[in-house]
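Translate sequence into structure tokens.
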Amino acid sequence: MRVYGITGWKNSGKTGLMERLVEEYCYRGLTVSTIKHAHHSFDVDQPGRDSYRHRAAGAQQVLLTSRNRYVLMHELRGADEPSLDELLSKLAPVDLVLIEGFKGAAHPKIEAVRAATNQPLLAPQNPMIKAVASDTPLSLQRPVFDLNDTAGIADFILAEVGL
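Result follows.
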């Protein structure tokens, strides 16, 4: 599987760019999966639901399934957060995995930047950031795309990963 990331500060446009890239690649006939890193606790389950009750009772894993989808929830129960490589090994094979977040991980990525966030660029200190997608013109020693140039960014990533 080929892997490419979208990184940046909070409210920089990462999720919107990820969503547009997934749509673009699916339109082009590629299979795509995503991994999203959260820096906070989250829950995709609802208190009181059967699957929530299974987890609350102590189940290590709960697989919830229907005719439309399934989800496997794994409780870490104090164990270390899995590495990106461990998480990737859990995915079914696809053409491309897009990763949101994981600023310091050793995979190639594009930094999303919005001037309104008033955050410093990550790219100058991170050689794994191969390009920047910004809502304002920038002068850098790597490619800079308009944040809304989905097709151009999609083409760049495909060239980078050899697809």
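Note: The chain has four helices and eight strands.
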